[in-house]
């Protein structure tokens, strides 16, 4: 037991110094007691608020929220108890200490039932006062850190953009992190994704799942589904195997709504079409002085992109106020427009062309005949190409049903219009209108084509690049999630389980506080997590490693640190993954730390890791007997391992484990922090 006592003395001499910026509220009607308490605490660097009454206490907590409240209960016990109730309600996270000369009085018991952390006798034992205050504030900091961490990770989970699904061996949804909006109202758990994926994509999805299982690989696919409101949703999914004890027990499905991306790509395609038309039209404008060749080219471009039963270009004479047809194509057959009479421009905007010219705004008419009734003159092009004025347009099949009419504007003035007409109702969309507007601009401002194209091309390339980077970011994020589920250390069977159990027993033996043991357990569990980034050619190599390979292998502790250090709740566990290969004499790696430079958890785990390796069979040797292992540790104490820890560990493993009897520890030594 001497080794254990020595170890506890060492720990008691290395307890951390209290934080300097903690606020303590001292409440006592006894001015002498309050002054003494305040003086003692302020000398130790604490910020102290004092109150002698209920009203003053209320006023003080409006100025600053204390982490610790000390309440004297002797002068007015009932008053003090009521005050405690009120303060606990208003300061739910604060710690409380009551000060009394008589710890046996009923108010003390009542106060402890309220949730007071401790009782302090007055007159004070200064050492006990400061010890209890430091203990309470340490507990406050740990609980506050836990509250913040829980709130942070709750926010992360609830706001994650990805839908993370666990599929069982039957391909049904076993678990899901959240129900996305497009699946709301549906039965999700226990169902197969096939139930909500569109039928056209069933084979793609099932083939992807089959590849994951057959190849033990990570695969991806895209599919469409219809939300409960009927809206079309595009999803991108990454799938990977979920393994347990070497066999696949299910599939992870990481799903993200990429509808906006698909729409964005469609928008880019539309913009590409516009740019292609602008480019080809610009080349034609620059290559010829014959405007009708430009009209022919524009007609071909428009016909390729939308329904175009009739196509016409008209100009407006600002002096005569007449609209003249310059070019007309009917069912892909050019029509001689020399006999077409000019149409008077209606200043009130009656008639489709007049309305566009007067307003300077384009129009989409998906019920063209209704709008034609407002025109004073109505003309039809017959099959022979001749133009005739009609009183009423006959209700035949081959008559205009839909139209797009867009102005050609040059330096702010409308100089003409372009019309595209279909024999179908509702033939055109806003995209078609925008496309024709673009053509009108090109036609009206031919001299500016090259500059407009270059600017537009630069913009579209930037958008394409932005989209590519965005997609790569999505892919990287999804691959990261799946890889984190997929990666597993190929360790000797049962090693992680054994070393975590040993770590918990060892931590109990040296009286590690209960709330600290979870960090030791996590550190032991993750001790070799850095090996996940070591190449298989090194990690799984059967022969001896080369110097270069060994140098890479030695970095797995640093890899673990780089990976885990950004995760707040894993920061307390980093010592074991990073430093468990350090040795007491400085001969270890990755940093060659020596003696107490090595954090305590890493010094502990170094012993456990070697112990488990020696006590179990490995491919290159049989397990050692217990006595041989103990002799080895005694031989290496002070060389590879911490001498005090080795003594404690040997005492632990020689105890009767079946009775779960632990090495007794002196009760007066309260270990709150170990590093």
- What do we call the CATH topology of the largest domain? Hypothetical protein af1432
| Backbone structural class | alpha+beta
Number of domains: 4
Averaging pLDDT over every residue, what do you get?
79
Instruction: Profile the largest sheet.
Output: 7 strands, antiparallel
The oligomerization state is: single chain
CATH class of the largest domain: Mainly Alpha
CATH architecture of the largest domain, by name, is Orthogonal Bundle
Shape: elongated
Name the CATH superfamily assignment of the largest domain: Hypothetical protein af1432
Percent of residues in helices comes to 40-55%
For the secondary structure, the number of strands is: 19
Number of helices: 22
As a whole number of angstroms, the C-alpha radius of gyration is 41 Å
Cα distance spanning the termini? 23 Å
Beta-strand content = 15-25%
Low-confidence stretches: 1-20, 446-454, 474-491, 656-675
Summary?
This protein has 675 residues and is an alpha+beta fold.
Structure description:
The protein has 675 residues and is an alpha+beta fold. It has 4 domains: 22-157, 3-Layer(aba) Sandwich (Rossmann fold), CATH 3.40.50; 161-258 and 446-488, PAS domain (Beta-Lactamase), CATH 3.30.450.20; 288-444, Beta-Lactamase (2-Layer Sandwich); 495-659, Orthogonal Bundle (Hypothetical protein af1432), CATH 1.10.3210. Helix content is 45%, strand content 17%. The protein has 22 helices and 19 strands. Strands 11, 12, 13, 14, 15, 18 and 19 form a 7-stranded antiparallel beta sheet that branches. Strands 2-1-3-4-5 form a 5-stranded parallel beta sheet, sandwiched between helices. Helix 4 runs parallel beside helix 5, helix 8 (259-287) packs parallel to helix 12 (430-444) and helix 14 packs antiparallel against helix 15 (514-525). The two termini are 23 Å apart. The model is unreliable at 1-20, 446-454, 474-491 and 656-675 (pLDDT under 50).
